Amino acid sequence: MNGRITVRGLSQLGLIPKGQCVIPNRFYEDGWGRWLPMPNITLLPFFSVSIASGFNWEETVAYMEKKSKPNTFIDLNDNSVNQRDNEDEEAHSLYEREAEIKRKLQANGFQYPKSIFDVIDLYVALGLALKTEDQQGKWCLDMIIRPLRNIDEVLTN
């Protein structure tokens, strides 16, 4: 795999126990926790489990949809949410964080996620994950563990 360590590769070697997730150990140090939208961060462990479980693309989407919560996605265009959230400091901070991330993503030609499909597409577009074909010719996903690029190399604007 060109010196790359991935979740699928570790799983195929039997190095990930069933039901466990693997997150890159430099995830936060390389800025992913700072610039990745909250839906992507909260769903990342489930994304990793689906890959380690050998799910194809459709199974990964279905699994992540099952694991998402009603409040996973924030509507940043809803002004009433922003005004209501101003009453709660933590909710307001989260809203402001996500609004800044949305601006940063758009400045770099990416879209803020509004669905599971968007979450997965953003993982791939940012280079955290990749699409591959399995042995049956079905699309599947993989997540890079190492080397993980610093997100500031991807989001330059």
Give your account of this protein's structure.
The chain is mainly alpha-helical. The chain contains 8 helices and 3 strands. The protein has helices at about 5-10, 30-35, 40-50, 55-65, 80-85, 90-105, 115-125, 150-155, and strands spanning about 5, 130-135, 140-145. It has a 3-stranded antiparallel β-sheet. The longest helix is centred in the middle third of the chain and has 19 residues, at about 90-105. It is globular and about 50 Å long. The chain starts with a strand and ends with a helix. About 25% of the residues are buried.
Number of strands: 3
Strand content: 5-15%
Main β sheet profile: 3 strands, antiparallel
**SSE series:** EHHHHHHHEEH
| C-alpha termini separation | 30 Å
Radius of gyration: 16 Å
Across the major sheet, the strand order is 1-3-2
Which percent range fits the helix content?
40-55%
Which blocks of ≥5 consecutive residues have pLDDT under 50?
Answer: none
* Coarse morphology: globular
**Helical segment count:** 8
Structural class: mainly alpha
Mean pLDDT: 88
